[in-house]
Amino acid sequence: MDDKSLLIVDDDSGDRKLMRRHLSSLYPNAKILEAENGDAALEFKEEDIQVIFLDYLLPGVSGIDLLSSFFRHWPRSVIFIMTGQGDEEIAKSAILSGAADYIAKSAIHPGALHRMVGNGLQVARMRWRIEEHQKELQQFSDVLVHDLRAPIRAIKFLSDQILEDFEAGDLDEVKREFDLMKRSVTKMSDLIERLASHINPHSEGAPESVSADSLVESACMAVAQDIANSDAQLSVDLHDLQVFCFPPDVSQLLQNLIGNSIKYRNTEQPQIHISAKPISSGTQFSIADNGIGVPDEYQARIFEPFKRLQRSSDLPGSGLGLATCAKIAKRHNGEIWCDTGVTQGTTIHFTLKLRHSLDAVNVRAS
After folding, report:
1. How many Cα atoms are found within 13 Å in the side-chain-facing hemisphere of 150?
2. What digits encode the pLDDT tens for the residues 165-188?
3. Quick one: angle between helices 247-263 and 212-222, nearest 10?
4. How many Å apart are CA 265 and CA 289, to the nearest integer?
């Protein structure tokens, strides 16, 4: 809350001054902005505004009429309507129009504001999570329809061919067609497993402090065959770090990144370097390789579900690996990104910022 901006929109300078005093005492590190009307408020459209207190009666327009334009510019903001007098009809209209709550100016005091902001942000976070889940469900349905349609058609076609060739006594052709059917079934199974992993990429258990070496070792064991088949050379620089995390999740994250470094290699022998260093709020891992690299225009999008490089469309995969990595990093209060300064190969960094408290358990539940 404290690192965000709050906006007060009110044409009465005295009321703005009172609100600023209350909010400054509650959130001393927050950036508090003021505007006397809607146009002045929209001058702050580049600001990351989290909470807006909006007067119901402004010159020439009501605060409710401004809600839609405010939500367009600050879609994740929490907006509270203020008015000089309490009115149930205004309160009803404000809530129906998207406001988080309504308060009469006579009832404004620090305790009421603190409760409003706390409750409003909690409800907003729930709404954002629901919206994110809805988007993911839509993406899942799209990929299921698209990616499962081809192997299902192939299996149906091959089953007809197998019956026909079996009746004709051509057992060699039957064997070949069974092999093709097995590949189609494997493709379907892999896709379903990736979807399941993306929906729920974490295992049960509590966060714990483990060595970075053990996390990397577990990840490398999982892709040992790929490492051997590709003759990849791995080097590590982990500084004997201890990492507070959900170990199975982070091993999965590392496994996905190492696997990608092998999958998207070029003609040279794969060289993969894994490093970790302490940061002020946790740990940062980096995985660098000498593979085909990621074009600038794709570096931000590769962490979205089902996004793949056009030039890698002939390689196996569903585009869920890096999206799962992003989910795991997020659940550790961290981030993941592609290093834009790398000109050869790919370097991906991710941070883990899980705190040694019950908050970590709450992250798991979310």
Report:
1. 10
2. 999 999 999 998 888 888 878 777
3. 50
4. 8
In angstroms, the CA 21 to CA 19 distance is: 5
Task: Give the whole-angstrom CA distance, residue 33 versus residue 20.
Answer: 9
Domain ranges of the chain: 5-108, 130-199, 208-365
Q: Report the largest interatomic distance among the alpha carbons of the chain, rounded to a whole angstrom.
A: 94
**Cα–Cα distance, 85 to 103 (Å, whole number):** 9
pLDDT bracket for residue 295 (50, 70, 90):
confident
| pTM given for the model | 0.53
Amino acid in position 79? I
**3 state SS of 78:** strand
Least Cα distance to 308 among 129, 138, 143 occurs for 143
**Chain centre to alpha carbon of residue 86:** 40
Q: Is 233 helix (H, G, I), strand (E, B) or coil?
A: strand
Please provide residue 359's backbone torsions phi and psi, each rounded to the nearest 5 degrees.
-60, -30
Which fold is adopted by the domain 208-365? Heat Shock Protein 90 (3.30.565)
pLDDT at 132 exceeding the cut of 80: no
Structure tokens at 174: 């039957």
- Who's near 17: CB < 8 A, 6+ residues apart? none
CATH number listed for the domain at residues 5-108: 3.40.50.2300
